[in-house]
Design a protein that fits this description.
Radius of gyration: 31 Å
Number of strands: 10
Largest sheet: 4 strands, antiparallel
Main location: membrane
Distance between the termini: 22 Å
Subcellular location: Membrane
GO cellular component, one term: plasma membrane
InterPro entries: Anoctamin, Anoctamin_TM
GO molecular function, one term: chloride channel activity
Helix content: 55-70%
Strand order of the largest sheet: 2-3-1-8
Structural class: mainly alpha
Length: 693
């Protein structure tokens, strides 16, 4: 009897000392009396009742049972359809979700730390009754994360659809999308907050900074970081524009000024990218994403293969041979890209034939009309370039998806590489040909100006004005259908959902960064030939800020927030372009008549001198990149302090556990000694103690 009582005491001591007092997914009821809709799920019309019941059950079921433990309600429309569902979550559930996704919030001591529910009282602005501690964008991101992580358990098929096969670990949302059962998932707008943001962002024309913190709170870090980079790049272009205007107006052709402008271009392209890293670090630290730990990346939803065991995680997931993927990349994708590049060069040669025809026509007629005809081939070529870029983009997306990359990061890297290679050749090949084969600086200036201005006009029309006009027409039709003459903020929930589900979908910042990348190329590669390139880039970017803000707030559905700590692979793309600009500008300087006059007898000396200067400038560029820290000193200190405190906390935890083990070992020995004097069974007690430890 004494042995049993002692064993129970030891077991309770071990359990109390080895587990922290924290709430689990199932220890609290996640029911929320006031339901707040955050995300909309639209199913296809005619979706079977058993499918809807199964999906909603998986969404509301507890985490222990493989569910998302969220709240869901059907949105009943006027015609009685129930294919739209509203998804929300309790305040407690969102806090636990914030911990699981690793959100970083500001503490009461002004430091940034990863949020944990057990230490919630230490975070600034937290209160049990404060439901605004997490922004609406963060709440929607948490819900999206939980929905995407809904995985099949024992189901073999989607109920009601025998052809839609499932296997353990398969993403339910992805399978529903690929089978056409799920139409879309999107987050709802907050009409009041959106109205305030519109007013401060683009509601009035002003010279000033964008409300990046407000943009981040509403749209998330990825979109806020894009607008921050767009604003920074626009301000960084101003020195180039200020210097370029008098250079162009007064037609400075002196050798010293020519070299000085090109040298400033090289210095400028290096400094702005290094300084941007520092600005980016300051912003993302303030937003908390600089400290977010990268979780183990799970397979992307579109990844498919034979079900197997992941050797790292030990979990069941699709397995696809890397050899098959490499075969697809090198035997299909690579030849296709090369074929597209060849076709781009073929179109370029047709453009030069048109240029020659226009020049011959002008020589024969020499009228105002013939002078205008000189610009027609460049305009046509610029339009063709834009069309080819967009068609190739769809082909690149299809090929990259067909390559079946396991990780989303790998998919994005291969897609960006394909698109950048083609766009670079398609947009700049003609300029390189004119500069370094034809040696026609006048035609180079004309072509650069025409390509830059035409592409900017086409992008503004295709990305902002046309979608805005289409959305305005759609909005008018919806209002007539609903017989509603209310303002945006006066829309009912049903009207708001019906209005937003018909809006366009924003597919991310890829195209926006690509446009800035090409613009950076036009400015940095050949701006010493056409100094007004920076001026037109500034004017375009000012209108781009307002047009992009307009389309984010009025044209597209609200995108899900995506935490990010940088602009990602685009930083490397811009740095690569700056390296290429060093080479092109050095060659342009070497081709100038003034420099050629310094080497009248030996062209080899000229080539060696240009190569030496180019290598020296590249070396200086890399030295500057090394000397300028990526993070400001105060951010480095804060990050180092957090790392030190984390190590100290780990030491304390290990020391505490070691002390507990020593205490339990001593206690076990003393109890066994006491039992020995009372002729009790000590062996069974030690066995229980060891199993508990």
């Amino acid at each position: 009897m004494m042995t049993v009582e002692v064993t129970q005491i030891l077991h309770s001591v071990v359990s109390a000392s080895s587990q922290k007092m924290k709430e689990s997914w199932s220890s609290f009821d996640t029911f929320e009396p006031s339901f707040r809709p955050l995300v909309v799920i639209e199913l296809a019309k005619g979706t079977k009742e058993e499918t809807r019941e199964w999906l909603t059950k998986r969404i509301v079921d507890k985490k222990a049972n493989g569910g998302a433990q969220l709240l869901v309600k059907p949105l009943v429309t006027e015609n009685g359809d129930q294919n739209i569902y509203l998804v929300g979550a309790s305040h407690f559930r969102l806090l636990l979700g914030a911990e699981s996704v690793g959100l970083v919030k500001e503490c009461n001591d002004n430091s940034m730390r990863t949020f944990t529910y057990s230490s919630r009282k230490t975070f600034k602005g937290f209160a049990d009754d404060n439901h605004n501690f997490l922004t609406m964008a963060e709440c929607q991101y948490i819900i999206k994360h939980e929905l995407e992580n809904l995985r099949a358990k024992d189901e073999k098929i989607i109920p009601g659809y025998p052809q839609a096969k499932l296997y353990p670990g398969k993403s339910i949302v992805r399978r529903l999308l690929t089978n056409g059962i799920l139409v879309q998932i999107f987050p709802l707008h907050d009409r009041e907050e959106l109205k305030k943001l519109r007013h401060t962002w683009y509601g009035r024309v002003k010279i000033g900074y964008q409300p990046l913190d407000e943009i981040r709170c509403y749209f998330g870090e990825t979109i806020a970081l894009y607008f921050g980079f767009l604003e920074y790049f626009t301000f960084a272009l101003i020195p180039m524009a200020v210097i370029g205007i008098p250079y162009y107006v007064f037609a400075w052709e002196d050798y010293d000024k020519y070299v000085m402008f090109a040298a400033f271009n090289l210095l400028w392209s290096t400094v702005i990218l290094e300084v941007w890293k520092r600005f980016c670090a300051v912003m993302t630290y303030r937003w908390g994403t600089l400290l977010m730990k990268r979780q183990f990346e799970e397979p992307r939803p579109g990844f498919h293969g034979v079900l197997g065991i992941n050797p790292v995680t030990g979990r069941e997931e699709p397995v696809y041979s890397s050899i098959k993927r490499q075969i697809r990349i090198y035997l299909v994708s690579l030849p296709f890209v090369c074929l597209c590049l060849y076709f781009s060069l073929y179109v370029m040669m047709i453009y030069f034939d048109l240029e020659q025809w226009a020049l011959d026509y002008h020589k024969e007629n020499e009228s105002n009309f013939s002078s205008l005809m000189l610009f027609v081939p460049s305009i046509i070529y610029a339009v063709v370039i834009e069309i080819m870029n967009r068609i190739y983009r769809y082909a690149a997306e299809f090929l990259t998806s067909w390559e079946n990359h396991r990780l989303e990061s790998s998919y994005q890297n291969h897609l960006i590489l394909k698109v950048l290679v083609f766009n670079f050749l398609n947009c700049f090949a003609s300029l390189f040909y004119i500069a370094f084969v034809l040696f026609d600086m006048k035609l180079l200036r004309q072509s650069l100006a025409t390509l830059l201005i035409t592409s900017q006009i086409l992008n503004q029309f295709a990305e902002a004005f046309l979608p805005y006009w289409l959305q305005k027409r759609h909005k008018k039709r919806m209002k007539k259908k609903m017989y509603s003459q209310k303002t945006d903020t006066g829309l009912s929930l049903v009207e708001q959902v019906n209005l937003e589900k018909g809006m366009g979908t924003y597919f991310g910042t890829f195209d926006d960064y690509l446009e800035l990348f090409l613009q950076f190329g036009y400015v940095s590669l050949f701006s010493c030939v056409y100094p007004l390139a920076a001026v037109f880039a500034v004017l375009n970017n000012v209108t781009e800020i307002y047009s992009d803000a307009l389309k984010m707030c009025r044209v597209y559905k609200r995108p899900f927030a995506e935490p990010t700590a940088s602009i990602g692979v685009w930083q490397l793309a811009f740095e690569t372009m700056s390296v290429i600009s060093v080479v092109t500008n050095c060659i342009l300087i070497g081709m100038s008549p003034q420099v050629n006059a310094l080497f009248p007898d030996s062209k080899m000396d000229l080539i060696l001198t240009v190569a030496l200067v180019e290598h020296m400038l590249l070396a200086m560029k890399f030295v500057m990149a090394f000397v300028i820290p990526d993070k400001p000193r105060d951010i480095q200190i804060k990050l180092a302090r957090l790392e030190f405190e984390s190590l100290e906390a780990l030491k304390q935890q290990m020391l505490f556990g070691h002390c507990i083990l020593l205490v339990l070992k001593t206690l076990t020995n003393r109890i066994c000694l006491w039992l020995h004097y009372h002729d009790a069974d000590c062996a069974s007690t030690q066995l229980v103690c060891q199993s508990s430890l």
